[in-house]
Amino acid sequence: xxxxxxxxxxxxxxxxxxxxxxxxxxxxxxxxxxxxxxxxxxxxxxxxxxxxxxxxxxxxxxxxxxxxxxxxxxxxxxxxxxxxxxxxxxxxxxxxxxxxxxxxxxxxxxxxxxxxxxxxxxxxxxxxxxxxxxxxxxxxxxxxxxxxxxxxxxxxxxxxxxxxxxxxxxxxxxxxxxxxxxxxxxxxxxxxxxxxxxxxxxxxxxxxxxxxxxxxxxxxxxxxxxxxxxxxxxxxxxxxxxxxxxxxxxxxxxxxxxxxxxxxxxxxxxxxxxxxxxxxxxxxxxxxxxxxxxxxxxxxxxxxxxxxxxxxxxxxxxxxxxxxxxxxxxxxxxxxxxxxxxxxxxxxxxxxxxxxxxxxxxxxxxxxxxxxxxxxxxxxxxxxxx
Amino acid sequence: xxxxxxxxxxxxxxxxxxxxxxxxxxxxxxxxxxxxxxxxxxxxxxxxxxxxxxxxxxxxxxxxxxxxxxxxxxxxxxxxxxxxxxxxxxxxxxxxxxxxxxxxxxxxxxxxxxxxxxxxxxxxxxxxxxxxxxxxxxxxxxxxxxxxxxxxxxxxxxxxxxxxxxxxxxxxxxxxxxxxxxxxxxxxxxxxxxxxxxxxxxxxxxxxxxx
Amino acid sequence: xxxxxxxxxxxxxxxxxxxxxxxxxxxxxxxxxxxxxxxxxxxxxxxxxxxxxxxxxxxxxxxxxxxxxxxxxxxxxxxxxxxxxxxxxxxxxxxxxxxxxxxxxxxxxxxxxxxxxxxxxxxxxxxxxxxxxxxxxxxxxxxxxxxxxxxxxxxxxxxxxxxxxxxxxxxxxxxxxxxxxxxxxxxxxxxxxxxxxxxxxxxxxxxxxxxxxxxxxxxxxxxxxxxxxxxxxxxxxxxxxxxxxxxxxxxxxxxxxxxxxxxxxxxxxxxxxxxxxxxxxxxxxxxxxxxxxxxxxxxxxxxxxxxxxxxxxxxxxxxxxxxxxxx
Lengths: 386, 211, 327
Prior knowledge:
heterotrimer, A: three-stranded antiparallel sheet, B: alpha+beta, three-stranded antiparallel sheet, 6 helices, 29% helix, elongated
């Protein structure tokens, strides 16, 4: 095992005075509520102590008190930026344990929703990352507003589909809750064509920009060994040269029927992760188009519409299902005992595992790099603290 | 940022830098001439999609003018944050809701209560305009809920429509199946299912274990 | 005695003009930036936001002045004033039209450059006196940056001086009657470019605004200031930016020279200064910022040698031509 990967890096005492600075839970670029206690020598960070738990809302306990019918709406609040994939993890786990079939139309609708959600989530990622790097009064804010402008279009699509803009309650055990309204197909195609062009604009603004490159290349390098050892997932591990995507490794919800590439970069720095996510934009657009083209007719749920709170009962058993969320592998482990509620629900949050890499990669960088690295890790604290 | 190749590399690097800078500034300039995307709300009304999940309200029957709610409490049981509290009032002909309180300040707007209502009594409106200065005004009682139902336009989604949309297609019984957003998608207060045996049995179905 | 009186009146008038300009330039920047970001900017206060700066000024005057308990009294309280005075004093030497100015010194450019870099003192006093780690970090970065960029700034500004042969600002403008210095082959354009870049950095504007870096240091050395003290600091910053824009317009874009009658000259000067200001704003809203060590690297390894070589080249060109002495 790579010895460098095993120990947390702490630089030796350089003889300078050390300053402990708190990048506290209230901070413009903490991406949520996150406390990082930085030890600085001048401008260089020497050690990082990460404190989480400010957003703990007892999701796993709620999973035990709410039934299978009630919980999917709540599941969206773990990864609230990419709610569709979070709900998908939970219902997939329950369906796995209960061996419940999902009709093909529902699977395709789930894919469309998940990929549109990935586009929206990456829009938010790019906007907030540039905002952190460029300042609320500066170029970062410009990229942020452009990205939010595009994200609003996707949220409008979701609003036409489900009625809600951020936390949908779209999935249910056995399928999905809402079918496409008339005209939605055409609207989706139009929107993603428009966003495809706008992504070209973002790349023109950032791609060869010396300022951007100089802030992101060589910064926050996660070596391949470190990535595999710590267990990061999603764009972080694909940016470090490991071609691993749950949609390819363990295809769920008919992903095996779609043709898409898994973008992988070898450098492992912030720029590599940026390139991975930008490529994921394009791939998601491709998948949505394929799904719309091949959308089968049929039912959207294999069970009748929810009429009562205890309608779904799952026989004794346990199982783990994982999906590729926008931030990485989201998993739900459900232990069922025959009743309408799970006996135990355990969430595997993608951001929780991703944050574990911070004490390894931040020491040695400057304070300004801390925000660049945090942004490229893209944590959402609903997932971390649950 | 200095180049190791001497003057030739430095010049080409400088040119590349100028090009990149120019490209970024060109994007900003292009956006300068685009129309701003700002919607001057609330001076400009915002179009709501058909299925918008807004405020909750109770409805009256279109034909008879009676309250649709039969006090079956299905919405109370299914609500995840438990914001609905219902008391049933039994009469000979049919049941009513004696009291119906909904704590809108804690409501998650998940639409599950709408989903389970057998009589399409509770629906969501196409509006979210209920900002108040006092939180107690957001504790909606039955009268307030009925008033809201008359004040705003209801969303397309009612209990029966949602359940029809989700159910696996049954063999046609001479009744239009709502498969992908029906042609009759114009919002309606919902047909009372009183004549249908489904209403009273819905309560019994609450305890049936699903297949 | 009358001379002193005239000078005082002129100074007072210029100060008022500067105050009005600063307040409305903030509105101009906000509307300009908003349009680049697909939004509208201030709109509701007054027609199209025209009274927004007044509203902001009134708000800041009415705000409570919060002083941290452990702040260093003299340093903390005097810092805004010490920061503001040099930023406004630079306007004393700028002639807005032939004969219209407070003091057209024969070392005008030198005075401007020297005084404008005195703001560092106020900045550091603010950072230290706030008794706040963020403010201190920001002040240390600022001192680093401003000192590093003042040198290329001075050298770039000296190119027109060498081309003219005089430090007097009105003389520099008169010498551009034939050809603006920005149009001067190669040397003019490069000097203008270097001037813009170093001006951006010497004023802590994005992409060189590492000292305030909202997402890291939350307003930098200003973080503990509120109310009127904050207003003074903002005023000083914008006055400095506008002053540098005026200097750039004067040195490179021909000052008050322009078609039309002579009294229109001041208007041309204002327009040119606003053009430079808008270019700086355009750059500001297009780029992310760069790290402090990279900023310093650009200055010492790139800009300083570049401007030095440029200045020497200009001097050689002038000497070879045997021209350029205007008194």
